[in-house]
Amino acid sequence: MLKHNLKLILRILWIRRLYTSVILLSLIIGFLCTNLLISFLFFETHTDTFHSKQNRIYQVFSNDPSGGKGLIAYIPITLTTI
Questions:
Q1: CA 60 to CA 76: how far, in whole Å?
Q2: Given this model, what pLDDT does residue 76 score?
Q3: Under a CB-based contact definition with an 8 Å cutoff, are residues 43 and 32 in contact?
Q4: 2-15 and 17-45 helices cross at what angle (nearest 10)?
Q5: Domain coordinates of the chain in residue numbers?
Q6: Contact status, residue 61 vs residue 74, Cβ threshold 8 Å
Q7: What 3-state class would DSSP assign to 50?
Q8: What would the pLDDT profile of 16-62 be if each residue is shown by its tens digit?
Q9: Cβ-count burial of 20 within 10 angstroms (0-12 exposed, 13-18 middle, 19+ buried)?
Q10: How many alpha carbons fall within 13 Å on the CB side of residue 54?
Q11: Where are the alpha helices (DSSP H) in the chain?
């Protein structure tokens, strides 16, 4: 019974090749985007975990220099050219 159903499914997918390829392409793109998003989030949340004194690491925030509301991690150029 399972073999018969599998043959029937493959036959229908072969007849509708364009439909099948669109579905498979959308699944591949979805898995790729999900994988990239999860990898990015994992990297961002585990950035400084290799330090022995990671509980002493701080990040400095300042007002948005482009005039937006909120805080961003921003260091002016005058502090970077020592």
A1: 12
A2: 67
A3: no
A4: 100
A5: 2-80
A6: yes
A7: coil
A8: 999 999 999 999 999 999 999 999 988 877 777 777 887 887 777 77
A9: middle
A10: 8
A11: 2-15, 17-45, 77-80
